[in-house]
Amino acid sequence: MSITTFKELKDAVITQNKTIWELTQEEEGVNSDLPVKEVRAEVLHHIKTMRETIKTGMASTEKSISGWCGDDCDKLIKRYTNNRALFGKLFEKIITYSLATSEENLRMGRIVACPTAGSCGIVPGVLIAYSEEYNLSDDEQINFLITAGKIGSIISNKVQLAGAVAGCQAECGVASAMCAGALAQTMGGDINIILNAVALAMKNLLGLTCDPVCGLVEVPCIKRNPILSIHSVSAVELAMAGIESKIPVDEVIDAMRQTGQLMSPMLKESSLAGLATTKTGLKLKEKLVQQ
Amino acid sequence: MNNKTLFDVISPIMVGPSSSHTAGAIRLGLMARNIYSRPIKKVEFTLYNSFAQTGFGHGTQKGLFAGILGHSVSDIEIKNIFDLVKNVEYSFNYAEDLSRHPNSVDIIINDEMKISGNSIGAGEIKITEINGFSVSISGNYHTILLMYKDKPGMISTVSNIIQSQNINIASLHCDRNEKGGTASMYIALDVPASDTIIHLISDIDDVYYTTQIRKLDL
Questions:
Q1: Is the CB of B5 less than 8 angstroms away from the CB of A112?
Q2: Is the dihedral of CA B14, A100, A133, A18 positive or negative?
Q3: What is the CATH number of domain B12-131?
Q4: Would you say residue A289 has pLDDT above 90?
Q5: DSSP chain B
Q6: Model's pTM, two decimal places?
Q7: 8 Å CB contact of B10 and A145
Q8: Superfamily classification of domain B142-213
Q9: Taking CB atoms and an 8 Å cutoff, what residues of chain A touch B74?
Q10: Cα separation of B66 and B80, whole Å?
Q11: Could you read off the pLDDT of B129-172 as tens digits, one per residue?
């Protein structure tokens, strides 16, 4: 029986005395008919791709097809050549890597959708930055990404991970929740801490709309990635202190699904409202159509 | 709802920027290529609705064309595909048809086969029509497609051949243009069918056309 709710996940972790990533890699091995070793090798391949994306993205200032974006990561790198980030090296690396990834996505570079292309910068930003600053082994990084993937898959049992279905809470919101749980796990948090980190990250992004200008994965998607990667770290810091989400994580996901259903279709990837139809948003669209 | 697996969530590895408008477009092209399965000299695309309106900024046209040429969803050459390929003729048309899926395309290959499909989200696709016959092919299974004269007994004849090779059928669907007219059948399999199976099926009386559509790698 596969695990479909966080409650079931918690029960399995406790009764079988295994970690989330142990349970998940076994389950994935059965699903895909592969030995666990190969599942882990495939996950490592994804992590290596994430690193390559960051490297390529940091080195590029190429604009997107629309011409709107593409040189912001370079600005960030220049800032950090002469200034220290407010919260130190880890903060600097997280937002730089996250932005590098989402910029690489918009210029048709190679990325890992995690869980979607529009939210592809959040998990790699935190995973790779933390790995470098805390010298994580390959195995620890694999455990991180498997844990993140399991959290996303449990959420996707209740809510389809698509802006058109539930708004950006189901894309960048879920990426942030996946990342929070995985980081809490990596920092030694027990199952309660992990699930609270997920709940706290998710809870504070409920109602996040998907209103991209001209329907492109650019405005506001690109800058939302670095900002929400830091959001996920804040949730972890609270959870690691033993601070609990009063609403249990499964109920937070229920609320998210309901919020997604109640959200107007105009705010779900249709670009019919919100930022997309602001004066400037419409002007950008008009210019692009003329091209 | 099917449970999402680990790799449904932390995948695909793809070129950006959009799983539906870029990766889905590439996969639609790849699937059309697999269905046609002969050399392609000319291709005409008609993009509908959101594909037509926002395709440019998402590289949808590049993705569709690259897929037709066999490039995978993670191939970074895709962004320069129109500069790299000169020996295949291509054209793009744009239309609005609200009765169709928001991300929908018609692909006409070598003026002889018309394939329609939708990008249904998260890189997943569905081929909906081949030469006027409605189908529903996801690319997640190896699929046998055949066209034949509509008559009794065809389903059991075909399924017996597949069963005789000990292959499990995941699903089987039929459609026909009129009673006794031309019918189509597509059969999703857990493992690819051997050439023997394809030959045996194409040798059945009144089978006009048989092909195996390879599952997409991703």
A1: no
A2: negative
A3: 3.30.1330.90
A4: no
A5: -PPPPHHHHS--EEESS-IIIIIHHHHHHHHHHHHH-S---EEEEEEEHHHHHHHHHHTHHHHHHHHHTT--TT-GGGGGHHHH--SSEEEEEEE--TTS-SEEEEEEETTTEEEEEEEEETTEEEEEEETTEEEEE-SSSEEEEEEEE--TTHHHHHHHHHHHTT--EEEEEEEESSTTSEEEEEEEESSPPPHHHHHHHHTSTTEEEEEEEPPP--
A6: 0.90
A7: yes
A8: ACT domain (3.30.70.260)
A9: 110
A10: 10
A11: 999 888 989 888 999 999 999 999 999 999 999 999 899 999 99
- Asked whether the predicted pLDDT for residue B35 surpasses 60, the reply is yes
Q: B188 near B174, Cβ under 8 Å?
A: no
What type of residue sits at position B206? D
Residue A145: which H helix or E strand, with range? helix A138-156
Q: Does B2 touch chain A (CB under 8 A)?
A: no
Mutate to test the interface with B, among A42, A108, A165 (most CBs of B within 10 A): A108
Cross-chain CB nearest to A150 (options B6, B57, B76): B6
Q: Say whether residue B182 is in contact with chain A using an 8 A CB cutoff.
A: no
What radius of gyration, in Å, describes the C-alpha atoms of chain A?
Answer: 19
Of A173 and A2, the one with more pLDDT: A173
Q: What are the sequence ranges of the domains in chain B? A: 12-131, 142-213
Domain residue spans of chain A = 6-290
Q: pLDDT value at position B1?
A: 41
How near does any CA of chain A get to the CA of B98, in Å?
14
Whether B18 and A118 lie within 8 Å, measured CB to CB? yes
Average per-residue pLDDT for chain A: 96
What amino acid is encoded at B138 in this protein? S
**A246 CB-contact burial (10 Å; exposed 0-12 / middle 13-18 / buried 19+):** exposed
